[in-house]
Amino acid sequence: MAKLQSEFDAVCPCCGATLTIDVNLRRVIGHQEAERGDKPELSDAQKILAEQAARREAIFEESVRSEKTRGDDLARRFEEALRQARDEPVTKPTRDFDLD
């Protein structure tokens, strides 16, 4: 497409994209993304999908395992807190009113 005299290209310093700006409209009228070096190949798509599925399955299995032992962990923490409460001496709390 032919450029008008009021249009110019600018390169974004952050992402490297090329922006086409029209001075009269004071707007970006087009852009072209910069080429990325880490773009995956289409031939690797099956491998990438399989890796992501395996990662999701591992995370799910870990959450199932933690939920199965959650009840035991809570019971153990409750027993520990109960034992600690029994060992502490019972004292009457001091109030600000009593200190006067």
Descriptive overview:
- This protein is α+β, with helices and mostly antiparallel strands and 100 residues long.
- The chain has 2 domains: 1-33; 45-86.
- The chain is built from 2 helices and 3 strands, in the order E-E-E-H-H.
- It has a 3-stranded antiparallel beta sheet, with no helix packed on it.
- A hairpin with a 4-residue loop joins strand 2 and strand 3 (27-32).
Topology:
Blueprint: E1 7-11, E2 18-22, E3 27-32, H1 45-87, H2 96-99
Antiparallel strand pairs: 1-2, 2-3
Task: Offer a few descriptive terms.
single chain, 100 residues, 2 domains, 2 helices, 47% helix, elongated
Major sheet: order of its strands?
Answer: 1-2-3
Uncertain parts: none
Biggest β-sheet, characterized?
A: 3 strands, antiparallel
| Mean pLDDT figure | 87
Order of helices and strands: EEEHH
Decide which structural class fits the backbone.
alpha+beta
User: How far apart are the first and last residues' alpha carbons, in Å?
Assistant: 89 Å
Measured as a percent range, the helix fraction is 40-55%
Number of strands: 3
Shape: elongated
CA radius of gyration: 33 Å
